[in-house]
Amino acid sequence: TTGTTSTLCVLSGTLRTGFTAGDYWSSSEILGNIAWQQYFVDGSRSSATKTNSYQVRPIRAFG
């Protein structure tokens, strides 16, 4: 890890910059119309209705 939220992985596993700071959706759902939202400026998390327009940050599954 680089410790910076503006860094992302590419298919080769290398890191590059490019993520916008702000609100992103989590893949964890709370209820049918509510999911977790992650704020990549200060690391805070809260619940939000799915009608909000947030960014998504795709990741590779490990396992």
Keywords:
three-stranded antiparallel sheet, 63 residues, mainly beta, 41% strand
Structural overview:
By secondary structure, the protein is mainly β. It has strands spanning 7-9, 15-17, 23-31, 34-39, 45-49. It has a domain at 20-56. A hairpin with a 2-residue loop joins β3 (23-31) and β4.
Question: If helices are DSSP runs of H or I spanning 4 or more residues, what is the number of helices?
Answer: 0
By secondary-structure content and strand pairing, the structural class works out as mainly beta
The radius of gyration computed from the alpha-carbon positions, rounded to a whole number of angstroms, is: 13 Å
The helix content is under 10%
Classify the beta-strand content into a percent band: 35-45%
Shape: globular
**Overall average residue pLDDT:** 78
What is the number of beta strands? 5
The largest sheet has its strands arranged as 3-4-5
Largest sheet: 3 strands, antiparallel
Distance between the termini: 18 Å
Low-confidence stretches: none
SSE sequence, one letter per element: EEEEE
> From the structure provided, what is the oligomeric state, counting identical versus distinct chains?
single chain
In short:
This protein is mostly beta strands and 63 residues long.
Note the topology.
Blueprint: E1 7-9, E2 15-17, E3 23-31, E4 34-39, E5 45-49
Antiparallel strand pairs: 1-2, 3-4, 4-5
